[in-house]
């Protein structure tokens, strides 16, 4: 995949990507029309946002005649996983062990089964001790 590892999608970018993931390959005009029921956006606004997602590795573009066709470089899960990874890296960089402690406390309070799943994940990630 061409996804970058240091980019978080904004609100409009997320709305655009939802349409791209639904339709597969789209033009700016198609995205603008799909957004229209909930947002009145200029064509140039949608075009600018979509064109900026290309160098960030979120979208690919191909030209056919006078039209540009955009396609996602990864799935919705790819982008969500990448965003979650970046968010965790940022929290750990700023708060270190305190963030890990708080994360475990939150999981424990919300759902004990999640804590068990986390323990299993940690066990699976550790190399076998000999």
Fill in the keyword field for this structure.
Arc Repressor Mutant, subunit A, 3-stranded antiparallel sheet, mainly alpha, elongated, 2 domains, 62% helix
Task: Provide a descriptive summary of the structure in words.
- There is one protein chain.
- The model has no long low-confidence stretch (mean pLDDT 87).
- The longest helix is centred in the C-terminal third of the chain and has 35 residues, at 76-110.
- Strand 2 (59-64) and strand 3 (67-72) form a beta hairpin.
- This protein is mainly alpha-helical.
- It is built from 5 helices and 3 strands, in the order H-E-H-H-E-E-H-H.
- It has helices at 11-23, 28-35, 43-53, 76-110, 112-125, and strands at residues 25-26, 59-64, 67-72.
- The protein folds into 2 domains: 11-74, Orthogonal Bundle (Arc Repressor Mutant, subunit A); 77-125.
- Helix 2 (28-35) crosses helix 3 (43-53) and helix 4 (76-110) crosses helix 5 (112-125).
- A 3-stranded antiparallel sheet has the order 1-3-2.
- Helices cover 62% and strands 11% of the residues.
For the record, the count of structural domains works out to 2
* CATH superfamily annotation of the largest domain: Winged helix-like DNA-binding domain superfamily/Winged helix DNA-binding domain
* Alpha carbon gyration radius: 19 Å
Strand arrangement, major sheet: 1-3-2
* CATH class categorisation of the largest domain: Mainly Alpha
- What overall form do the CA principal axes indicate? elongated
CATH topology of the largest domain: Arc Repressor Mutant, subunit A
The whole-number mean of residue pLDDT values reads 87
User: What is the succession of H and E elements?
Assistant: HEHHEEHH
Strand content: 5-15%
Give the structural class.
Answer: mainly alpha
Number of helices: 5
Count of β-strands: 3
Largest sheet: 3 strands, antiparallel
The low-confidence runs, each spanning 5 or more residues with pLDDT under 50, are: none
Estimated helix fraction: 55-70%
CA-to-CA gap between the ends?
A: 36 Å
């Amino acid at each position: 995949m061409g996804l970058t590892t240091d980019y978080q999608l904004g609100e409009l970018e997320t709305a655009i990507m939802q349409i791209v993931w639904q339709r597969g390959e789209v033009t700016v005009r198609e995205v603008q029309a799909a957004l229209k029921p909930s947002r009145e956006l200029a064509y140039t606004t949608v075009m600018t946002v979509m064109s900026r997602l290309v160098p960030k590795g979120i979208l690919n573009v191909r030209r056919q005649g006078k039209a540009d066709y955009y396609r996602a470089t990864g799935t919705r899960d790819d982008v969500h996983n990448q965003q979650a990874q970046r968010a965790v890296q940022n929290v750990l960089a700023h708060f270190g062990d305190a963030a890990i402690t708080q994360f475990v406390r939150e999981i424990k309070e919300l759902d004990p089964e999640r804590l068990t799943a986390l323990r299993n994940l940690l066990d699976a990630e550790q190399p076998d001790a000999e």
